[in-house]
Write a structure and sequence with these properties.
Low-confidence stretches of chain A: 81-112, 204-219
Oligomer: heterotetramer
Largest sheet of chain A: 6 strands, mixed
CATH superfamily of one domain in chain A: Chloramphenicol acetyltransferase-like domain
Helix content of chain A: 25-40%
Distance between the termini of chain A: 84 Å
Order of helices and strands of chain A: EEEEEEEHHHHHEHHEEEEEEHHEEEH
Number of helices of chain A: 10
Order of helices and strands of chain D: EHHEHHHEHEEEHEHEHHH
Chains: A alpha+beta (about 450), B mainly alpha (about 80), C alpha/beta (about 350), D alpha/beta (about 350)
Radius of gyration of chain A: 40 Å
Radius of gyration of chain D: 20 Å
CATH architecture of one domain in chain A: 2-Layer Sandwich
Number of domains of chain D: 1
């Protein structure tokens, strides 16, 4: 059966124009076949003598099926050969392609039971870990009921919380339960600002965007209002911090002679814009130490310490209007010394011009305050919840210092650490301070890329 | 710049730079010989931006050794005009 | 350099968008004698929008060729001449008439290289005016960049600034594949700094015309000016710091630039003079949903033309078209959570 | 004025005649084999056979040089073979193999070969005409007259089509059917070519039918040469079944165009012995008409003349048939052994490699 068109799959023999024993030449029309489109003549592409007509008139066969057989020209053709087992007539229409079977729910040993996407989504909604759920379905497949049971039946009746994707992501990061947050979005949808306001210690709730319906506001009064609101928020935060967090304090004085000389030498032939301040060196030291010593870089959430991978370094910045903010440098561990200096510069300039980016306002994992500029020797900082530690740097000043038993004058800084006793203890806090001090003693280590 | 810049010109440059950093401070009310940092309530980062401003406007490299000489208003003006 | 009434930096010559386009063609015609211009009334008449005024006198009738009213033939001839080794610039008077040459552009220009297994590239540049706003009524006011940006094998450019109008033509001529340049009719008279030597521009990336932190406004071509105005409005009234992204290249879309912006601002409005359904704005919005879902604090807003044949009466046309106020309104909705 | 050019008697150099016969048989047997391969589902999609029109391709291509350009239609297998694209490469393209002239991406309707200035088949009726006019425009602008194209200061050039000495008196041969004459692009293109006196020769293969619509049912004026003449273009009707007549007419037209006389139009009256394509039940033509045209099979006409001239005998004919059969067998083997293009190359050549990022 020839294919007589791209979408032709079978044909019905309407007429035979030859019979066994007839000689056939190339190109001769030997039969007429009906396709869905029309009756079409079938030509022979070979010459020979017809031995038998396999497919009778009226039968439908698939493209490619044998219609008739030819013997080479001149061959004697006796009576039609013994009844060949007639070719089983193909079913009229090709069978509907069988629907691909449901993926077999084979439960290979060891691998977690297979579960359908719907079940996986349900588990995600109810914060249920599928690995821990016994499946009661065929071959141990996990069913919806199994998930609901595993969630302690809590799920029943708990409505899905409408929220923006960013709000959900921030809630996960801040450990805030969405359904504990009142949404200010359309139809009560929770937005990221709502999550941050609800989180106990967002350092600075972002200036709420004016209500679109509110009449136009004079820019200056808007700014004054914003400052007042910000100071109130920080005040309330500090009060709660002192109330809830059992602070304990450690201090250490560090000789910066080596670091100062190294930094002075590094800055010598650089234009001011590329010079690095000691503050950047301090931030690098804290970042490296925080990454090294766990239990100080993370958040205290719902009665448990949640470590955070990556050091999101908060920096306390005083604004011109006197108020204080502590925006963060995200993933500070990725920055070398020059990049840390640039990040610090960008953070301070943006904070003071009120154009902090969303990322800078997102929540740090540990914060540093550097009041040395104001001539204060030691600082006893207040931790920003939910962080569990805060480092303070005092003034760098020449002090008497014992060197190899001799009295010398050295530039010394006193570093203080406030820590949350629920999350860490004196031993870990001391190891952290030593790590910071050790880094400041060999500054080149804090600046791997550029040669000293 | 040809001859040494006049003091008034140098003062204008220094004032312009400080205006960006501490906009709300009136330079006439501060002690010109006293240290700028405490009087203007600016930290070491602001001071570095002040030094940067001097370099940008005058081309002077202002190495760290010279920070002391530009720590006060008079010092800065002298530094800017004297060196021209 | 943005367009419209922006303060013009001193020291640079001023010029209009139209003059920038003309200068670009004059420069190309001088630099390579395989370059020639072909289209209806581009020669003696000086161009329906006077873009090619004076070129006939300077380069002669062989390289500034007026054609009969036969869009399919002269666009096809442009393809043939490009295959034959020339570097033609074909001007289709407006995108509305380009429909008569759509088969040549789609089935020949865009398809030949791939269909021939990499043998025949078509180094052709086609320029056409686009857009509404001049009361030319339904048949002369279409914005169909989105149609052409749908076709693999074409590069689609939308110069919205003087520098882009001046700078995009040469790299387009150097591109071994067909490039379509859409010039919005309302931009021709816009004036701005015409830097000399002309600014180097690429034809691959979008550009941030106004940096901002709170909201991303994505647009292209004729709607850039009103989008910048909307950003001013938002800054003044809402204290909202909007970032304006000018796509510049509609195919291939520089997705990275507007994704990075929205990852910072978490809110986006797309402004597109095409009709909303199946528009370029829909494509930008879909890519934001697909690749920046977790960064969105509100659904992506869209400001497009009303889905109507463009009416003649001015007040009706303005009602149908995107505007700074409509963009600001959409922005407020997005800022409030969408 | 249109005149049917009779074949000049006795001009049949025995050598050329035999070459023509061989070429016509190559086309005929190749197309017959393709029909069979199609029925065996080896070739898919659309397949438009040239059986019956061989004399048009052989006669007209005779007048072209390697530097001329050819633009054809989806019924372009004959032109492609005569232009020199190897039969096995064409068949591999029909099989959709990577060894095909377009890596299997074009199929039977879109054969291209840049090295031989074969600007393809084209699936859209009449869409090749404007492109042919453009190629002729490029020839005219690069070969002489004002604005002689020099080399200095070129735009980055990924490679120039046609080698050195390419410029000069080259022509563009543009093939299309009677159906295309009813398309708007025919009017636009012939007018533009005449207006600018471009070196293009329009070869109209009038096989009497636009798919299923007979000539008289789609053209108010069925003498297509008169239509072309109205654009001030010299136009002749030619007996498309007589290869000598075709060759003579084509030579005359191409020569005139080469010498700058502007475009010419030949209406080659011919007939396809098979349906429009493999999927056409061919109900719209009556058997008597087909038989009448079959009686003037262009191959038989030529073969009989060669026999009369003593240039051909049975042995000679068998020799040609055997050579052709061998070439076809090799082509089939090559195509069968062809490899599919790797799917990973799907997006290659959407734009030029090394073009803009």
């Amino acid at each position: 059966m020839p294919s007589l068109g791209a979408d032709m799959t079978s044909g019905t023999v309407v007429e035979w124009l030859v019979k066994p024993g007839d000689e056939v030449r190339r190109g001769q029309i030997v039969a007429v076949v009906d396709t869905d489109k029309a009756a079409i003549e079938v030509e022979a592409y070979e010459e020979g003598v017809v031995t038998d007509l396999v497919v009778p008139v009226g039968a439908t066969v698939a493209v490619g099926a044998v219609l008739a057989r030819l013997a080479p020209l001149g061959a004697e053709v006796t009576a039609p050969p013994a009844a060949e087992p007639a070719l089983p007539a193909e079913p009229a229409l090709p069978a509907e392609p069988a629907l691909p079977a449901e993926p077999a729910l084979a439960h290979s040993d060891g691998a977690p039971a297979v579960s359908s996407p719907l079940v996986r989504r349900r588990a995600h909604q109810l914060h249920v870990d599928l690995d821990t759920v016994p499946g009661t379905g065929p071959d141990g497949a996990i069913q919806r009921a199994d998930v609901t049971a595993a969630s302690g039946g809590l799920a029943l009746g708990r409505p899905r919380v409408r929220s923006s994707p960013l709000a959900r992501r921030r809630a996960r990061e801040l450990g805030v339960l969405l359904d504990s947050v009142t949404g200010t979005g359309p139809r009560g949808a929770v937005r990221v600002a709502d999550v941050e306001r609800a989180s106990p210690r967002a350092p600075q709730a972002p200036m709420p965007i004016a209500d679109p319906a509110k009449p136009q506001q004079h820019a200056a009064t808007a700014r004054a209002e914003a400052t007042a609101r910000r100071q109130a928020a920080v005040g309330e935060l500090m009060a709660r911090s002192k109330r809830d967090i059992p602070h304990f304090y450690l201090g250490a004085d560090v000789d910066l002679a080596v670091a100062s000389a190294w930094l002075h030498n590094r800055n010598r032939d650089r234009p001011p814009a590329q010079r690095v301040l000691p503050a950047a060196l301090f931030l690098r030291a804290v970042t490296v130490a925080a990454a090294e010593v766990g239990h100080l870089n993370g958040h205290w959430v719902e009665g448990g310490f949640q470590p955070i991978d990556g050091v999101h370094l908060g920096v306390a910045v005083s604004l011109r209007d006197g108020s204080l903010v502590a925006p963060g440098i995200r993933d500070a561990q990725r920055l070398d010394l020059d990049e840390m200096m640039e990040a610090l510069r960008d953070l301070v300039v943006r904070a003071r011009s009120g154009r902090l980016t969303r990322e800078q306002m997102s929540d740090p994992s540990i914060t540093v305050t550097n009041l040395g500029d104001l001539g204060v020797d030691t600082v006893l900082p207040v931790i920003y919840p939910p962080q569990v530690a805060m480092v303070g740097f005092g003034r760098v000043a020449d002090r008497p210092w014992a060197v190899d038993g001799m009295l010398a004058v050295r530039p010394v800084v006193s570093i203080s650490l406030a820590a949350d006793h629920r999350a860490s203890d004196g031993h870990r806090a001391a190891r952290f301070l030593q790590a910071v001090a050790r880094r400041l003693q060999c500054p080149a280590e804090l600046d791997p890329r550029s040669a000293p | 710049m040809t001859a040494t810049m006049s003091d008034t010109e140098a003062r204008a440059i220094v004032a312009g730079i400080l205006a960006d950093i501490a906009p709300e401070v009136d330079l006439d009310e501060i002690d010109p010989a006293g240290e700028l940092q405490p009087q203007l309530d600016i930290d070491s980062l602001d001071f570095l931006r002040f030094v940067e401003g001097i370099t940008k406007h005058t081309g002077l490299p202002v190495p760290e050794e010279d920070y002391r000489r530009v720590a006060s208003l008079d010092g800065a003006v002298a530094y800017v005009s004297g060196h021209r | 350099m943005s367009v419209g009434t922006r303060a013009v930096p001193t020291g640079a010559a001023t010029g209009t968008y139209r003059e920038a386009l003309r200068e670009a063609m004059r420069d190309a015609l001088r630099r390579d004698d395989r370059v020639f211009l072909m289209g209806e009334d581009v020669g003696a008449y000086g161009g329906a929008f006077a873009v090619s005024l004076g070129l006939l006198e300077e380069f002669g009738p062989d390289r500034i060729r007026d054609t009969p009213l036969s869009e399919s033939a002269f666009v096809g001839a442009g393809i043939g001449a490009a295959l034959g080794g020339m570097r033609p610039i074909v001007e289709i008077m407006t995108v509305n008439f380009s429909l008569l040459a759509l088969d040549q552009l789609l089935n020949n220009a865009a398809t030949l290289l791939h269909m021939s297994g990499g043998q025949y590239n078509v180094p052709l540049v086609v320029r056409m005016t686009t857009g509404a706003g001049r009361q030319l009524a339904a048949q002369h006011s279409h914005s169909l960049e989105g149609w052409y940006a749908h076709i693999p094998g074409l590069r689609i450019l939308a110069p919205a600034t003087i520098d882009d109008a001046r700078g995009m033509l040469w790299p387009a001529l150097e591109d071994p594949d067909p490039v379509l340049i859409f010039e919005h009719g309302s931009l021709y008279n816009a004036s701005g700094a015409l830097s000399d030597p002309p600014a180097e521009v690429d034809i691959c990336h979008a550009a941030i015309r106004r940096p901002g932190a709170d909201l991303t406004l994505v647009t292209y071509g004729g709607t850039l000016p009103l989008t910048l105005d909307a950003a001013q409005l938002l800054a003044a009234e809402e204290g909202c710091d909007a970032e304006v992204v000018d796509l510049r290249v509609l195919r291939p879309l520089d997705t990275a630039t507007f994704l990075e912006s929205v990852r910072r601002t978490h809110r986006a409005v797309v402004i597109d003079e095409g009709w909303r359904s199946g528009s370029l704005a829909a494509e930008v919005s879909a890519r934001l949903m697909e690749e920046a879902f977790d960064d969105l604090d509100a659904p992506v807003g869209r400001v497009c033309s009303a889905e109507v044949p463009m009416p003649y009466a001015r007040h009706m046309e303005q009602a149908a078209l995107p505007s700074a106020d409509k963009v600001a309104e959409a922005a407020r909705r997005v800022l409030a959570g969408g | 004025m249109t005149v049917i050019l009779p074949a000049p008697r006795g001009s049949l150099g025995t050598g050329t005649g035999l070459l023509w016969l061989r070429d016509m048989l190559r086309i005929r047997r190749f197309e017959e084999t393709c029909a069979q391969l199609y029925s065996e589902t080896k070739i898919r999609g659309f397949l438009h056979l040239y059986i019956g029109e061989e004399a048009v391709a052989v006669g007209t291509m005779e007048a072209l040089t390697p530097d001329d350009s050819v633009v054809a239609t989806y019924r372009e297998h004959g032109q492609a073979l005569l232009r020199g694209i190897p039969m096995k490469v064409i068949l591999a393209e029909f099989y959709g193999r990577a060894e095909g002239c377009c890596r299997g991406r074009g199929g039977s309707m879109h054969l291209f070969d840049r090295t031989r200035r074969f600007f393809g088949g084209n699936g859209i009726v009449a869409a090749g005409l404007p492109v042919a006019v453009g190629l002729a425009l490029a020839e005219r602008m690069q070969s002489g007259g004002p604005g002689r194209v020099g080399d200095p200061g070129r735009v980055g050039d990924p490679g120039h089509f046609g080698g050195p000495g390419h410029f000069g008196d080259n022509v563009v041969a543009c093939y299309f059917g009677d159906g295309a004459v009813a398309e708007g692009e025919f009017h636009e293109s012939v007018n533009l070519a005449a207006l600018w006196r471009l070196p293009v020769v329009f070869f109209c293969e009038n096989n009497q039918y636009a798919m299923g619509t007979a000539l008289a049912r789609s053209h108010s004026q069925t003498n297509l040469a008169i239509k072309a003449a109205s654009y001030e273009v010299p136009a002749w009707q030619v007996d498309g079944m007589d290869v000598e007549a075709v060759a003579a007419a084509a030579a005359r037209a191409v020569e005139a165009v080469r010498n700058g006389a502007g475009p010419h139009f030949l209406e080659l009256l011919t007939y396809r012995f098979r349906a429009h394509s493999m999927y056409d039940p061919d109900r719209y033509r009556d058997k008597g008409e087909i038989e009448r045209w079959r009686a003037r099979d262009p191959i038989s006409i030529l073969a009989d003349r060669l026999r009369e001239a003593g240039a051909l005998d049975d042995a000679g004919m068998r020799g040609i048939e055997d050579d052709v059969a061998a070439e076809i067998a090799a082509a089939v083997a090559f195509a069968e052994a062809g490899q599919p293009e790797p799917v990973a190359d799907l997006t290659r050549f959407v734009t030029s490699e090394g073009g803009q990022p």
